[in-house]
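User: Fold both of these, please.

Assistant: Here is the first one.
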Amino acid sequence: MTETSNTTAIPDLRLLELLSQTFPSVGTASTEIINLEAILSLPKGTEHFIADIHGEHEAFRHILKNASGNIKRKVKEIYATSLREEDIRALCTLIYYPERKLEYIKAAEKDMENFYHITLHQLIRVLQSVTSKYTRSKVRKSLPKEFAYIIEELLHELPSDDDKQAYFSRIIETIISTGRADAFIIAMCNVIQRLSIDQLHILGDVYDRGPGAHIVMDTLCAYDRFDMQWGNHDALWIGAAAGNDCCIANVLRVSLRYANLTTLEDGYGINMLPLATFSMDAYADDPCTAFMPKIPKDCTDPASMNMDEKTRRLIAQMHKAIAVIQFKLEGAMIDKYPRWNMENRKSLHRIDFEKGIYTDPDTGKQHPMNDMRFPTVDPADPYRLTQAERDLVDKLHHSFAVSDKLKRHVKCMFTHGCMYTVCNSNLLFHASMPLNADGSLREVEIAPGRRYSGRELLHQTGMLMRSAFNDDSSPEEKQYAVDYYWYLWCGPESPLFDKSKMATFERYFLEDKETHVEEKGWYYKLRDDESVIDMILDAFGVEGEHRHIINGHVPVRINRGETPVRANGKLMIIDGGFAKAYHHTTGIAGYTLVYHSRGFELVQHEPFSSEEEAVRCGTDIIGRKIIVELSSHRMRVRDTDKGRELSVQIEELRHLLYAYRHGLLKERTR
């Protein structure tokens, strides 16, 4: 710091000289201060939080298009007294799916010119409402270049102004007469969608179960205002992309369990033919009963999922084949890292192949096996891969390694993602914070001699995950990072899992439900305690009168009386079960959390049928909104993290003004 003659402290002059290159005069610095001060007074932008999408791309994209009901709310506010409910629904559907809805309208509407006149005026009013909390500069950056000037003119001119009435009307008429109405409507609708969400937070688990994880990732990679906190399923896929064969086997097994070959084959070009060929040969006489693909409870006809009996049987054979290979690969990984303390997850050598009995490593209790068909397992050396299995693993490894789209999506996850984020007094992470029984932060060893807890644990875990893809990592560090992805998926102290075990083997081969229990870590047992949540928030430096932890990972079972809001409102769990496989368990079809300038709203969604039905019938998936927390005053940009950054910039600019006016720096001439 430098002291001036009147004792006003200003930053180091070297810093101000750098700032002066952007703001070379009193005039430019003053103008920027005025601009930033004005921004601080705008209402806070709307944040959306979504967790556990699990490949349900249509529901996810619909939520982005309707902004969790925020667009419909604005339309109703504007037109509640002038439009019927069916007309409001039709206008909203047009905003969500403009191209497809226009096709339906053209097929039924007799007077398209009248439709265009009415609709363009309606959309302009909606867009004016949506853009009211943004600066003109920010709005301008969101406009398509082709129509940017025209949209700006329409946004900032009122047709009720007599002096501008003819000007406004002429713009609309010319848009229609030049045949550009469709393109203009589509552009307007896309801008409304884009500006209805200021910041999108993805709290992990884009992958598995549903058929369109690759489509979700395509959507996100083209979305410029999102962050992501990695989930266990995301880590599994990143590990597969990194070349971890245990992760590859698990990715394939989970995909086959839910008959989800679309993401693998169509999405990432993974060649499943070698696995199919191997499975039909090795398990030709095996009914593979326990490995039949899971079908949603509300689906009574497997054929409706484009699966005949022959296809289901082939999927079951592939499912069992990769599961057995997984158990072998995991056995080798456990032997490689004894300090991970996962010896109890080695299962094949605990089978008595003569008696058909499995001995539980934790209890010593013996359980009858429900399936003893293991044609590729040598009881004398059960974890050894056959030559055919080894060749198959090599082919699958190569298929993942050469998938360019998977590489692009992993890069996107690293660019926008991390293990945790703190944003506007909210701590976001996917699953768990490892704790001791007394509620204190648990130290976890992520590498030899490297033990961390809390914030540092998540930070160092994220750094280790990145080192698997960094060229400057040593070969040893890189290999360990690749291997560690499997521990993140199922390790007992992994913050992405945090359970005693992943009972994969037991669920397939043992009938006794007690063996299926995966005991949750202390975070899950103590997270209703407000003092524990406060301790975690303190450890991460989260400040503010209204601060929260926001999680996903564990579905909230509304039909069992569970609630997403806990710990006196300081913890919000927003996994309501997007995946169709969870709908019967949770009783709903997912949550999104909306944080706007007046507070938090939790939006509960109904099952989403299809985009086709949404366009044709105007159906939506908003069930009901739960007011979680309302602010006593409307939040402004100055109340946010961004506002604090802008306030620092304003202070620096004021110091620059002082330096100019007191001769410490000379103004620059251009």
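And the second sequence with its predicted structure:
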Amino acid sequence: MRKKCTSIGGQAVIEGVMMRGVKSIATAVRDDKGDIVVESNYVTPQTEKNVAYKVPVARGFLNLCSSMGIGMKSLMRSGEVFGEDAEPSKFESWLAKKTGVDIYDIVMAISVVLGVALSLFLFVFLPHEAEVGVTALIKHFTGWELLPAWVSFLLSLLEGAIRVAIFIGYIALTTLIPDVKRTYMYHGAEHKTINCYEHDLELTVENTRKMSRQHDRCGTAFMFIVMVISIFIVAVVNGVLAFTQVPILQNRWIKFLIKLVLIPIVAGVSYEVLKFMARYDNAIVRFFKAPGLWLQMLTTKEPTDDMIEVAIAAFKTVQAMDENPNLEELRFDVKKPLKKERELMEQKLKQVNADSSEVEWILSIAMNIKRSEVNSQNYIKESELNKANEILNKRLTGMPLWKVIGNTNFYGYEIDINEDVLCPRPETENLVEKALSKITDKTSVLDLCTGSGCIAIAIAKEKGANVVASDISSKALDVAKKNVEKNEVQDKVALIESDLFEKIDGKYDVIVSNPPYIPTKEIESLDKEVKEFDPLIALDGGEDGLDVYRKIAKDAKAHLNKDGYIFMECGENQSQEIEKIFADFDVKIEKDLEGVDRIIEAKVKE
């Protein structure tokens, strides 16, 4: 009797299940928060990639190799969700650097090679050596130089029995490991889910829980079939070799190589047998299936309901993607070792002579944590790492970090910035500090060359004073408007587009300004991050850098109340010339934290 059989198969992984359909693969796991997360991708059907996948027997071995690769990759990806990916060895890192291959692929390849090597040692080499030992004893006691064909045939059966015993013993021992036992529980959930679908029942936890945790097409059953078939194929081959009575064909290493060569044939035949038996359900088929199903009692355990939910999520994802090739692929937000990623970022920053401490800022922003908390983190999520690398790559172009990020902190307030405004510097906070000493909530303030609006916002927030903020650049005023709204001082700060005093009416108690003061000839010698990413109009102060100061000095009196003040920032070695420009004012000069003359305080002479 032919039965319903889905093309979807699966495998248990770390805290989850991988399901594979004809056109897609999906792995569902529970993350460290207990949520189900899914990674999925479309794959080209094997029969479309290679005609050999349509050839009986050959397709069995090819599918086995393909399944091993996909299974190992899914297993490692599920481990990464929990940050369980180990640091690569020095050899792996060196190999990745020399070959240009991603370290993840190197680790996976080495894991596959080691896994295959262990399997060959346990299930081929050890049984073979046991046969060699028994053969030596028989020759010793009988005096035979060459064994009769019937004896070689029986010895091959003995070798096969030893192989099966090692296999069962190996599986039994693994059930004693708690983490492996949980994986076997997920294996049971995978089988129950597929059985539920093949019984035409709705995929619910309740329906799935009732299903058997054994399944015809299980890899455990496949391995058992492989061993049984290999026993008879190897026995026949050994019998034929013994029948020829050719001495070299009785050599232990020649016979071992022949067994290795037979592996693809054995796997191919076993695949066809398993595929045939999976499609039918009758007394004869059940008889031959029984040993493989019994063995699954070791490799599957009863799952919990939350494990069944994971298996159902993986199955439904594959089912939907196989039916609709336009669905979006999903990706785990896996954890990466932070130390390694941080070192790579620091090395890249050295290429542009940037301070390596900027990495802490980048990571704190990407991970949405305080800068002081970065050093206590061991892992970074892939989505956070992508965000950090996006910031880093822009920084490597020479763009200042704060413009890359799009905001900075000024006087305790978050200020958005872009290429249309200057990035506020610590010296400007000194300017605000000085101006605030003469400002109360009753003071009227004019902020010339406001740029991002940072000065006006700080004054309004700190003192509650009304501020008119002007700038010649409409683009700068767009930024200032956003910052005014962001800091909720719309009722205190009025913005106006004006070339200094050109459109300014009335008089003010305090005028504050951070005007452009770089001499034109020095613009080209500025650091790249200033010259290329700050607006020229906010930098160029004319031939000697003092053009704007002269304009302010000329018109300021008409816009200052009695006993009014002007506070301005200036460049290095400019304070004395500015003092001359403001000859009609009482001028005081304040130094910044570096001891440089930086702040100009000017008051109209009485």
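The longest strand covers residues 560-569.
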